[in-house]
Amino acid sequence: MVKLLSPQKLANQPIIGKQLFDVITSGMYDNPLMIYREYIQNAVDSIDFAYESGIMSIEAGKIKIYVDGEKREIAIEDNGTGISNDSADHILRSIGASPKEGQKFRGFRGIGRLGGLAYCDELLFETRSSASELVCQVSWNRQAFDRLSADSTVKFSLQETISRVSRVSFIQPDDETPSHFFRVRLRGVRRFHADFLMSVKAITSYLSQVAPVPYNQETFKFAGKIQSYLSVLSDYRCYNIELNGRRIYRPYVDEFQLSEHRRDSIHNIELFSFKSPDTSRLALGWFAETDFLASLPQKITMRGIRIRQGNIEVGDEHFLNEMYTEPRFAGWTIGEIHICESRLKPNARRDGFEISPNYEAFLEQAQALGRGLSKLCRKASNHRIQKEIICREIAAITGLLAGQKMFIDDAHIHQARSVLHDKIGNLERLIEKVSPSNGYRETLASIRKAHHDKISSCQTIETGGRVCLDRQKRIISGTLPVHAATCFCGSVFQ
């Protein structure tokens, strides 16, 4: 038998207050650009649903972003299934009640769509699912919410707040209105920090790293190999995303500038996989084989091993920092790890994953990967130091070989020969430790020949008094006030 609560007990029931509305708008993201990720995430889910429903192919799916700096407006539109007139009001004014929950979609919590309201005066959703429908408009008024928030005497519930700051209307479509679509409009975009939300450059850079866009095969020769490897993942798809008419691609390129005088390149890629506790596939990934010369500068946006699920980034370039023996090595590497299907569940901010046995397995294998990459970075660093030492030794020996051919006597010639012999022997030992030799062995052979020619042409100075000062300027004998010169053993004659 159902027991009815008294009016007094009903009055004491928990209330979901209006403050929660502020949390899911202003409090959700620490980077305003993340709202683009959220709306694109919803857009690709809609395109996927259209594809799986037989409405269109994946290739026909398009996401168009328009940024109007003069009007301070942003629009993000997709040609996916859209939402029917019967469902739009319920879906677009509900919070935390997504119809995608439990299905293989990237978005499923039903809270990300309101993130844009933190940065504009009005957030407007427009959609329909067929040519026979009107266009449904759901408008959210930020200024109305600000007025409610400022009045501490008003104790509205979340439901009451939603009813006061949002409204639903239906309008007649025109001839250019798509038969099925979804469009997000941000009107009166507010300036925030460097105004990144309205910066085409900043948006392009962010989406090239985060969004499910393809590799550019014209600038990245390994694109085809990686695409083929990842194609076994059912949720790995790339989409046509345009910003003000220009298509966006992933940031990977074959060659890149580290500094004014140093360049590096991707010589090859290494493919790998992670296993879940039941030995099934957990993730597929790749990393670039470079010269690992140094940490890539911030402007090189492909730096770091990026984690992606559904081909959308989770976290950022620093996600795996603690997996390396030295966190700084995270910035030396390039690559991606793609989580298989729904093996891991991203958290609400999509900057990490919810704890699970699969996530534990992921972290263990990510740590093994980090240790392996750290060894490559350390080996490359040691190799580079060895090469610098070799170059200094070659320069020193070359300088000595270019010195004077005149010596005090045969003992002095023997001393010079001994010094050069020791230096060349040391250089040979250094070169043996370096692989590949980078032409050092050929240089060594040239030095040996120059050494032989130098010794063969040496002459002694036949005069009475003579002085030789060694490196410590120690007087050895007599005086020779004729000229000043440096011999290639390092002694100074006067």
Strand numbers in spatial order across the main sheet: 5-4-3-6-2-1-7-8
Number of strands: 20
Helix content: 25-40%
Mass-distribution shape: elongated
The CATH superfamily of the largest domain turns out to be Histidine kinase-like ATPase, C-terminal domain
Major β-sheet profile: 8 strands, mixed
Ends apart, CA distance between termini: 117 Å
The average pLDDT score comes to: 82
Count structural domains. 3
What proportion of the residues form beta strands (DSSP E)? 15-25%
CATH topology name of the largest domain, in short, is Heat Shock Protein 90
Annotated CATH architecture of the largest domain: 2-Layer Sandwich
Radius of gyration from the alpha-carbon trace, in angstroms: 34 Å
- The low-confidence runs, each spanning 5 or more residues with pLDDT under 50, are 1-7, 463-494
Short description:
This protein is of the alpha+beta class. Helices cover 32% and strands 19% of the residues.
Describe it.
This protein has helices spanning 7-11, 19-23, 34-52, 85-92, 142-150, 158-165, 200-210, 223-230, 357-401, 410-432, 440-456; strands at residues 62-68, 73-78, 122-128, 135-141, 166-171, 181-187, 240-243, 246-247, 255-257, 263-265, 268-275, 281-289, 304-309, 312-314, 334-339, 406-407, 459-460, 468-469, 485-486, 492-493. A hairpin with a 4-residue loop joins strand 1 (62-68) and strand 2. The protein is α+β, with helices and mostly antiparallel strands and 494 residues long. Helix 9 packs antiparallel against helix 10 and helix 9 (357-401) packs parallel to helix 11. It contains eleven helices and 20 strands. Mean pLDDT is 82; it is low at 1-7 and 463-494. The N and C termini lie far apart (117 Å). It has three domains: 14-198, Heat Shock Protein 90; 217-401, Ribosomal Protein S5, domain 2, CATH 3.30.230; 402-493, no CATH class. Strands 5-4-3-6-2-1-7-8 form an eight-stranded mixed β-sheet. A five-stranded mixed β-sheet has the order 11-12-15-13-14, with helices on both faces.
